[in-house]
Design a protein that fits this description.
This is Ribbon-helix-helix protein CopG domain-containing protein. The protein is an all-alpha fold. The protein has one domain (12-99). It contains 5 helices and no strands. The protein has helices at residues 12-25, 29-50, 56-63, 67-77, 85-99.
């Protein structure tokens, strides 16, 4: 995952939350903030997928995960994102069999 430096003003309450997380997970505050941001990004991507505003494939690309991981994440968080993982796998198999004919 590539990263860029970005100047950002954060509310003090988020910094306090990051401090708590950094102590609990024994990481520095910057790492704790990145983890909190990534968790928020995961939730937002799942929300966009569930509303039909983003495809599972594009969401996986943004989060640098596989579609299977997106389905698993949605299942863990109890988010409905359309087709089930089994339906996705069956679609992949069908597409693959059509291409191999």
């Amino acid at each position: 995952m590539s990263s860029k430096s970005y100047p950002l003003r954060l509310p003090e309450n988020l910094l306090k939350l990051a401090e708590i997380k950094s102590k609990e997970e024994r990481v520095n505050k910057s790492t704790a903030l990145r983890k909190l941001m990534y968790e928020g990004a995961e939730n937002y991507v799942l929300e966009l997928i569930s509303r039909g505003r983003l495809s599972v494939g594009r969401g996986a690309e943004i989060l640098e995960r596989t579609p299977y991981e997106i389905y698993r994440l949605a299942e863990e968080k109890g988010v409905e994102i359309g087709s089930t993982m089994e339906q996705y796998q069956k679609g992949e198999e069908t597409a693959e069999s059509k291409l191999n004919v």
